[in-house]
Each structure stands twice: as C-alpha cells, then as structure tokens.
C-alpha cells in the first residue's frame, strides 16, 4: 500500500510542478500564449510545445534520478532555472530581432528554432541532474 501512496503522491507532485513550470513560462512571455493559440498562431504553438517538452524532460530526469520527492523538486527547480536562463541567453544572442515579436507575427521558423532550443537545452541540463 505504501508503494501505491508514493506513486500517487509522486504523480501529483509531477503534475503540479509541470503546471507551475508552464505558468512561469507564460508569465515571462509578453503575450498570452493561449490567446495566440486560439488565433491559430503556429509559431507560438511550437514554442509552447517546446516549453512543455523541455519542462517534462527535466522533470522526468529529476524524478527518475531521485528517490525523494524533495530532491526531485530541488533538482527540477535547479534545472528549470537553468532552462529559463537559456531562454534569456538565446534572446540576447539574437540581437537582430526580438523573439517574442517574431512569435506574435507567426514566424514559424523562429517558433521551430525556439522549440529546438528548449528541447536541446533540456537534454543538456538534464544530463547534469544527479
């Protein structure tokens, strides 16, 4: 019975952390992701999918490598902060244009690149989680 309780609690914490991660990502963008999705903005959809995948990758590795929920949460937080830093660094390294403006315009090339940046950094960051 203890195993079942541990699994249920772990799944609940994972879902909560994934939601918190997505809310934080939505807060750092100067536009409303869901409103852009309703408009059919594919670029924002790609970027949002990249956000979800990247947080899930980091969260999955944090859960897999830690038997304690507290350590899982700690390593997810560390990995997530690194992921946020990667977004801001990527934004700084593209001085010719603002990423958020290109996403609002529906630039799918930028959305695809941002998806790959999120997922790529998530794999790199998750390899550091112990």
TrEMBL record:
The chain crosses the membrane at residues 6-28, 40-63, 69-90, 110-129. Pfam families: DUF350. PANTHER family: UPF0719 INNER MEMBRANE PROTEIN YJFL. This is DUF350 domain-containing protein. It is found in: Cell membrane. The lineage of its organism: Bacteria, Bacillati, Bacillota, Bacilli, Bacillales. Belongs to the UPF0719 family. It is a multi-pass membrane protein. Keywords: Cell membrane, Membrane, Transmembrane, Transmembrane helix.
């Amino acid at each position: 019975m203890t195993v079942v309780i541990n699994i249920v609690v772990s799944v609940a914490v994972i879902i909560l952390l994934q939601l918190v991660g997505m809310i934080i990502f939505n807060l750092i963008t100067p536009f409303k992701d869901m409103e852009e999705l309703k408009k059919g903005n594919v670029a924002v959809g790609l970027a949002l999918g990249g956000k979800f995948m990247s947080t899930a990758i980091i969260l999955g590795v944090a859960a897999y490598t830690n038997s304690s929920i507290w350590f899982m949460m700690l390593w997810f937080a560390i990995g997530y902060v690194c992921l946020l830093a990667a977004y801001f660094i990527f934004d700084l390294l593209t001085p010719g244009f603002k990423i958020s403006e290109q996403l609002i315009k529906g630039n799918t090339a930028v959305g695809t690149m941002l998806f790959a940046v999120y997922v790529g950094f998530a794999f790199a960051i998750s390899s550091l989680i112990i």
